[in-house]
Amino acid sequence: MKSDVATFIVTALVKQGAAEGCHADLMAQTVASLGLDSLDFMELLNEIEEEFEVRIEDDTVAASTTVAELIAFIEGNVAARRAMHPADRT
Description:
The protein is mostly helical. It has one domain (4-88): Non-ribosomal Peptide Synthetase Peptidyl Carrier Protein, Chain A, CATH 1.10.1200.10. 57% of the residues lie in helices and 0% in strands. The chain is globular and about 40 Å long.
């Protein structure tokens, strides 16, 4: 079962026209190989930050980061935020 984070990111990539092929293939692709220009990439990161109330530092996610690594990073941040703020748990 895909997490909310994975679903959100894959959906965002599909909307930007960057997601092609099967889910497993997409997870192994690097951000650079998706064909996103720098503006599209920044928009994706901003959407993720807003949706999950996390902060992504500029040097944390690079073009060599895979989609799976990006998802794992966001999931880790969401889990950490929820652990710090138990009232945010849903």
